[in-house]
Amino acid sequence: MRVLVIVKASKESEAGEMPTEAVLAAMGKYNEELVKAGVMLDGEGLHPSARGKRIRFSGSQRTLIDGPFAETKELIAGYWVWRVASMDEAVSWLKKAPFDGGAEVEIRPIFEADDFGKELTPELRAQEERLRAEIAERK
Fold first, then answer.
1. Quick check: 78 and 46 in contact, CB under 8 A?
2. Is a pLDDT exceeding 80 seen at residue 27?
């Protein structure tokens, strides 16, 4: 199964404070473990929400909202995409992460094609596979 590991924003990340060399080194070591184990598929840190935008959809209306966004606890500072055998394995890996006090990280399963049942017709499944292949070629 694939999971999205969501690193929640903090006052420091929203203020644009960069991590120390020691924190970067510890995270680099941790990411290396994840990659060597075949767990980590992707992962990045995100700029503060002040550099972001939101679009609110209401019927045919689109409303642009410039950052920063208010509720820090609802914002994301970074993410990983992992391939694990189970949610328990994801939790086990996450417990090894080099975060200090106050960090909050969420793990969410990513939908797989089979999760959609018969609504994902053979034609739609073929389209999905084609798009994934195109994305992989560009990397």
1. yes
2. yes
Whether residue 93 contacts residue 39, with contact meaning beta carbons closer than 8 Å, is answered with yes
Q: Tens of pLDDT along 64-123?
A: 999 999 877 789 999 999 999 999 999 999 999 999 877 899 999 999 999 999 999 999
State how far Cα 16 lies from the chain centre.
Answer: 19
Task: Enter the pTM of the model.
Answer: 0.89
Q: How far is CA 96 from CA 6, 27, 43, 100, 101, in A?
A: 15, 10, 16, 11, 13
Chain centroid to Cα 138, Å, comes to 20
Write the class of the CATH domain 2-113.
Answer: alpha beta
Mean model confidence pLDDT for the chain: 94
